[in-house]
Amino acid sequence: MHKLATALLLALAASSAIAQQDFSKVEIKTTDLGRGLYLLAGAGGNIGLSTGPDGVVLIDDQYAPLAPKIRAAVTAVAPNQPIRFVLNTHWHGDHTGGNENFGEGGALIVAHHNVRKRLAAGGFMEAFKRDVKPAPAKALPVVTFGEDVSFHVNGLTLNALHVAPAHTDGDAVVFFPEANLVHMGDLYFNGLYPVIDYGSGGHIDGMVAAVSRILPMLDGQSRVIPGHGPLSDKAGLTAFRDLLATVSLRMKKLMAEGKTLDEIKAAKPTADFDEQWGKGFLKPDVWVEMVYNGLKRAR
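^ thats the sequence. predicted structure below, dont judge the formating
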């Protein structure tokens, strides 16, 4: 009964937010970051926005029903500028749901090779016990890349860097070096325990490695857009990396001792982090189970 209840909890946690979300009540909040750059926050992953004479670049596009509101928010800060590019940081629907709408509107969708593969195939998302249908053709990335790709638009450089499997196997980090701004996608959940999609190649140690790779590229004035949560900085991202690294070591030690999942939960390996990180989408026990399943799968 306990295992069944846990499975149901995971399924509900993943699906109920979408099924019960009244998108008509979602407001897209816009933060001006200077130099034609903006952060758009609504429901789902944070959106990065570049505007200017070359047109608009969107970094992620949230859920499909929000596309008209996102377009309106873009028009409010960039009237008469076409949305030319959409860059997906990974394949999850709360970051790619608007692809079809914007693709039909003429935007060129860009992402890592594995994002297109996973969107095209769909499949079963193990972490959430949820089937994902294949995406429509217009929602698929038209341009895909391996290690990195650069855009030269609106007087700025945009560099997208693929990292080894972490949140998924198709993650990209997006830099605007002249503005000292980085969009981490779901490699960073600010103030929340992060989803680690082990069925899509994700792994907590991959998250640690990815964030550790990015941190030396930042300084004390860097601004960091997380996949979820408020705008942050290098110190916030460092604290997130330390959370991941500490919990990974604790969990692996408990597993090496032969502890069961229930025993690991009872040991509360996240207790000293729960006040800051455990009040979001994933509650502590659910996140511990997600990390456990990912570590177990990787053995």
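Confidence is low (pLDDT under 50) at residues 1-19.
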